[in-house]
Amino acid sequence: MRKLSVALAERSYPILIGRGLLARGELVADAVRTPQVAIVTNDVVAPLYLDAFVCALEARGLQCVSIVLPDGEAHKNWQTLNIIFDGLLSHRCDRSSTLIALGGGVVGDMTGFAAATYQRGIDFIQVPTTLLAQVDSSVGGKTAVNHPLGKNMIGAFHQPRLVLADTDTLCTLPDRELKAGLAEVIKYGLIRDADYFDWLEASIAALLAREPDALAEAIERSCASKARIVAEDETERGVRALLNLGHTFGHAIEAGMGYGVWLHGEAVAAGMAMAATLSMRLGWMPEDQCQRAIALIARAGLPTVGPAMGAARYLELMAHDKKVEAGRLRLVLLRAIGDAEIFSDVPTTEIAAAIDACCAA
């Protein structure tokens, strides 16, 4: 088992990565303050892992209730959030209870937001079962639901007490979901770690083949990078915004196409291609490095071309993004592989040109 820590003073917490961790109920029992836990999952993950997970927790003296949500980004909304609250209230969960998110990024985000707001805040634990959640969304305390006008527009920062990433769950992950998770993996190499990007270029075939050692290495290195950034800037006032590389373009794709049509990682992948292209057009990123970045995204089986919504529609949707401040769009762009910066003065004409260059005809 690999162990990392997110250093946030009294709110620090461990990230545990390894095989067979869902069966080790003591890892969860050690992280909860009282025996009552409510497990939130979805109707895809529940048949695979819920019963065995509950048995492992109950063997350690925990009292478990389960709340099963419909699967998919299309259900990341207030209506589904209320299913969690209804379950907590019907089972008389109080402010000493702990919520556990068993699933991918949607389950983790909604469970975290429910934990942040139920009775003004209760503990929660992340048990991510997708690659995207294991390398990114389960770490850092961002929680949210979507709004029709923008992704993750309603949420809160609420840190978990534990992240438990069982890599065995990746064996049942559909290929499309695995590739979507690789988008966030590649992001870490692009924003801050050129050596990691080099390793990804050499290891992408092993990751696609689900070789356990390669996956564990990618999860550990990605989580370590995010943990360092979150420790520096928990509430995204500065350096944490670098984690949004490709996301402003990607969120526009998700909202414009309808949530769930493009997976989050797919939209981020196309968004990173747009960000790299824009960086090159502005004379910041060398052309050969731009081509390397886009080539690795493509080798991961991810889209490098966005849907043909038109640049004007992209810009309209991007204007609703959380990264807009005082009416100015803030974009994460690249000086080089491993060297990202935040810009708020990029000409709209250049953004539109980069979008057009990276969209389907």
The main pleated sheet reads as: 4 strands, parallel
CATH architectural type of the largest domain: Up-down Bundle
Q: What's the helical proportion of residues? A: 40-55%
Q: Let me know the CATH homologous superfamily of the largest domain.
A: Dehydroquinate synthase-like - alpha domain
Question: Which labels suit this protein?
Answer:
361 residues, four-stranded parallel beta sheet, alpha/beta, 19% strand, Dehydroquinate synthase-like, alpha domain, globular, single chain, Rossmann fold
Structure, explained:
This protein has 361 residues and is α/β, with parallel strands linked by helices. The chain folds into two domains: 2-172, Rossmann fold (3-Layer(aba) Sandwich); 175-357, Dehydroquinate synthase-like, alpha domain (Up-down Bundle). The chain has 13 helices and 13 strands. It has helices spanning 25-29, 46-58, 78-90, 105-117, 131-137, 175-192, 194-208, 212-232, 247-257, 264-281, 287-299, 311-318, 348-357, and strands spanning 2-6, 13-18, 36-42, 63-69, 98-103, 123-128, 142-147, 150-157, 163-166, 324-325, 328-329, 331-336, 339-343. Helix 3 packs across helix 4 and helix 10 (264-281) crosses helix 13 (348-357). The longest helix is centred in the middle third of the chain and has 21 residues, at 212-232. The protein starts with a strand and ends with a helix. The mean pLDDT is 95.
